[in-house]
Amino acid sequence: MTDTFEEESFDEELEFLESEVLNLFAMDNKGYRRGSFQSSTSDEDMVEVAGGTLDFSMVDDVPPLDREMVEGFSSYNGGGMNGASKMMDFLEEPLPGVGTYEDFNTIDWVREKSRDRDRHREITNKSKESTWALIHSVSDAFSGWLLMLLIGLLAGAIAGLIDISAHWMTDLKEGVCLRGFWYNHEHCCWTSQETTFQDRDKCPEWRSWAQLLTGNQEGGALAYILNYFMYVIWALLFSLLAVLLVRGFAPYACGSGIPEIKTILSGFIIRGYLGKWTLLIKTMTLVLAVSSGLSLGKEGPLVHVACCCGNILCHLFTKYRKNEAKRREVLSAAAAAGVSVAFGAPIGGVLFSLEEVSYYFPLKTLWRSFFAALVAAFTLRSINPFGNSRLVLFYVEFHTPWHLLELVPFILLGIFGGLWGAFFIRSNIAWCRRRKTTKLGKYPVTEVMVVTAITAILAFPNEYTRMSTSELISELFNDCGLLDSSKLCDYINDSNSTKGDDLPDRPAGPGVHMAMWQLALALILKVFITIFTFGMKVPSGLFIPSMAVGAIAGRLLGVGMEQLAYYHHDWGIFHNWCSQGADCITPGLYAMVGAAACLGGVTRMTVSLVVIMFELTGGLEYIVPLMAAAMTSKWVADAIGREGIYDAHIRLNGYPFLEAKEEFSHKTLAMDVMRPRRSDPALTVLTQDSMMVEDVEAIVNETTYSGYPVVVSRESQRLVGFVLRRDLIISIENARKKQDGIVSSSVIYFTDHSPPLPPSSPSMLKLRSILDLSPFTVTDQTPMEIVVDIFRKLGLRQCLVTHNGKLLGIITKKDVLKHIAQMANQDPDSILFN
Questions:
Q1: Nearest 10 degrees: CA dihedral of 70, 74, 75, 79?
Q2: CA atoms of 349 and 516, how far apart (whole Å)
Q3: Per-residue pLDDT reduced to its tens digit, 767-826
Q4: Residue 824 to residues 458, 629, 662, 782: CA-CA distances in angstroms?
């Protein structure tokens, strides 16, 4: 009797459950699922931000969103479980596009990280069920390291290609190799049997353009004019090709790229900036721009190139392709690999990524950045682009120790670096602002050609500006030896005082005097021409020109100190450590310290700068001079203006970048910043179960907000959640196409259960699956310094403001940035993007 009763009871429960599932299935539209779809769009679309024009003609480098399926069924959606049963999630289809971001929008870091945790939790749980799932779990864990390996290999290979090509094309302006036009000057003369050590750069196989055109081996005025003419023509040709390629195929390939990468790493989306076209065009035009002789470097753009490699390779792995936050961890590591190959400084690259560009840098990313930088440096070393078994052209080794009293000139160099950095930033930003606000910006090709012509015409007569900037820095860093034939090493030798390899301080010869004048003129040219060059529509880095300015100033001061010590060795300051015939002063060291000071003054780097310079020279004992100069230059530059060059360009372009280093010290409240203000219309909200499809569509069409708060009713204003505009549009469009009975008068509800309606009403649309049930909220009395901290540390897009539990207003990231600008007496409307 009991058994029969239990069986009947069980059957009744089973029938009840089946009917409930069917009812839920009928009420829920089949086109929906509880989770949110991950973004799979790559940064591939071509957009011109700086010029103010948007061109979406070259899209679809990746498959459309609807071709992608979502793995798994559970996903983060605000509060996690949204009330629908597990059975329902299994029956529902994935809804393409929900949870992705539009161009020029900020990602939701909290949602992205929660999605990744859910994905990882699901994989871990499944790994206990079967061997195949366990293998999938292991491959998922290993995929990050594999991705770092690929990024390092690709970045190192591209950097080697750029180095070799730029070296050859720079020499092409002066002549050509008869044995093979693909040899640069140095390689051409390596195998020549008729080269002497003194004239190792002269060989019959290498012909200048004057020798080729006239057939005459002798020099003279005609040969000089012909070489001059060909130098200018080649420079103009290279820069013209560079600017036309950038303008025609990849507008984002111009500039350094570091300001935009900092913005992207902070969570902003700029589609096309890290795409395949940008990588290809930037690589080609970087070689052309460097070879043209313009006052720019390839080191900054190499960071952009490496980040493009990282973004493209992310599409090979689902974990990174579908999660914007995870992709930014990869881009942080790629930036480290870029600096690693730019300077041959793997540790400096990791520190640069941590100190200068990264917004979110967990410990795991630190290890992976280190690995990517290591692989990139190893790949470049294997290619050996300079033929000297070094990663950079200007690697040097000093042997003479420095004296404590030399800290005074080193600090003077730091002061010079800070002053020049502040002067450069103000001048360059003023010129770039003029370019953006006047007709000058409409003629990028003309601007590039004019600056190239002026640079080439002024650079050719001076051998220190005619050579490539990397070669100039190498020459200035060099410590003179017995066999050096450079003008900078033209000292009057006293054969009696030479002891072994160490050369004593000697009186300067006529070559040194001539070199000093030429370097002084080169310094003036570099200081002013770099202001107009950085920011043009060609790839342009700032590291090398800044180092060149500092290295010239340092070498001038170093030679001055050396001669002072030689002629006045009996002075009190030299008495104890610089006797006659001793090797006291190393001018090359002063050049290196000056280079660090000027680069620090412009970029405001400190720790990473010192490590990069130390890795360049291989000398541990020179860390203290470098630290003294770097800190002095930062203090001096900060006293004049707080922003480094990259932060200044971020502000100039209006990117929504919330600087984590700055303190917010004003005593304002959330109610002072939130919208709507007292004079504004009421806040646009959706109600949880009383609005029709046409009402919601009208609100979406009439407003441009990226999301809407959902409340219980307009009277109560009690907050239920927050829904994104993009998710709302996609869901309604999908329901109209795929769900029967959805019309303009259909009621939309965000609750678990449908509201009571007359039987004759059209089908209702349930959108609880796209509702974020746990939006961040603060009260209206919350101090803004806490709100700013929340936005910085959690990477929020928006925050809702309540009063006694009722919705009062909203604060977006743009509102926070505008408020900070207003408090700093800046134009709040300079924040261009949402």
A1: 160
A2: 34
A3: 888 888 889 999 999 999 999 999 888 888 889 999 988 999 999 888 898 888 888 777
A4: 41, 30, 12, 21
